[in-house]
């Protein structure tokens, strides 16, 4: 799961993302530069999408695109714009053979069959927040393909399992734009300075508290939640925990990662298999939180070991500080 060598690179705050990537690559004799370039391509797409988002209200790119994705969700214009922008950057960058996106049903071949990486992506996470100017994000997950470079990538390249991710991350378009990622050697965050057009290291070696007093879930669904989850939320309320729910997985997990807490999206009657998608929401966020010292389960098992058989497979998700995630997962298993 570790793309670069074991040596963790100590880099001062304020270092540009480009220099950080270069240092990580130099510290890894096996590195060939392809993953480094791929990470740069993702950062480029994030800058372009950040610009689109920052002027969304002016350019009338808010609202529905008038189409539905394979999940039966109305695609927002910015869902589609972000999808196109990331696809274009990954295609033009030349380091990615194929992409799976929340916004398209099938594997998307990029015309770079010689490349050794494939990328799964949630181009815009928190779509219901777009029109109301609340935080949204992008989630990405990178695999080294199993199929032979030079031949078309296949679905199996995306279904290797969460432990086979070589890198994962998110871009949070919030009060500032933040790129947070891991290559299996801890988690680092970079803040975008749009006037300089650069990401700068602002959150080195992010770690999350083992415990916390924040819970995040859509309490409007609570009657549908498994009994153990209902009991856990009641216990949080009785213990005067703080309830925080932004309605964007990235933003809720990011806040809880920094402050300590737990995000829960269990199975519900409306979504008996869970709402979130394992490949481009569950697995990448689980990889990140574990690299930051936290935990993620589906309510029963460690999420990164959960078998995946389809590209858009859904999953319940419980993620955050280890003591909270372990507690509710143990209770849930007991009551199942
Ligand atoms: O509106 P609900 O049911 O609370 O769901 C909110 C959750 O769904 C999501 O919006 C799903 O992601 P998308 O916006 O990428 O479809 C999560 O970001 C968020 O945590
Ligand atoms: Mg999402
Ligand atoms: Mg999305």
Query: Main β-sheet: number of strands, strand sense, barrel status?
Result: 8 strands, mixed
**What order do the SSEs take from the amino end to the carboxyl end, as H and E?**
HHEEHEEEEEEEEEHEHEEHEEEH
For this structure, what is the CATH homologous superfamily of the largest domain? Answer: Fructose-1,6-Bisphosphatase, subunit A, domain 1
CATH-level-2 architecture of the largest domain: 2-Layer Sandwich
Query: How many strand units?
Result: 17
Residue-averaged pLDDT = 93
Q: Give the domain tally.
A: 2
- Spans with pLDDT under 50 lasting ≥5 residues? 1-7
**CATH top level label of the largest domain:** Alpha Beta
Work out the strand percent.
Answer: 25-35%
What form results from the Cα inertia axes? globular
Q: How big is the Rg?
A: 19 Å
User: Which cofactors or ions or other ligands sit in this model?
Assistant: 1,6-di-O-phosphono-beta-D-fructofuranose, magnesium ion
Strands ordered across the widest β-sheet = 4-3-5-6-7-8-9-10
C-alpha end-to-end distance: 32 Å
User: Helical element count?
Assistant: 7
Protein name: Fructose-1,6-bisphosphatase class 1
Keywords: Carbohydrate metabolism, Cytoplasm, Hydrolase, Magnesium, Metal-binding
EC number: 3.1.3.11
Subcellular location: Cytoplasm
Describe this structure in words.
Helix content is 29%, strand content 25%. With 336 residues, it is α+β, with helices and mostly antiparallel strands. The protein has two domains: 17-205, Fructose-1,6-Bisphosphatase, Chain A, domain 1; 214-335, D-Maltodextrin-Binding Protein, domain 2. An eight-stranded mixed β-sheet has the order 4-3-5-6-7-8-9-10, with helices on both faces. A five-stranded mixed β-sheet has the order 12-11-13-17-15, sandwiched between helices. A two-stranded antiparallel ribbon has the order 1-2. α2 packs antiparallel against α3 and α4 (227-238) crosses α7 (322-335). The longest helix is centred in the first third of the chain and has 21 residues, at 34-54. The two termini are 32 Å apart. One magnesium ion binds next to β5. InterPro entries: FBPase_C_dom (IPR044015), FBPase_class-1 (IPR000146), FBPase_N (IPR033391), FBPtase (IPR028343), Fructose_bisphosphatase_AS (IPR020548). It is an enzyme of class 3 (hydrolase).
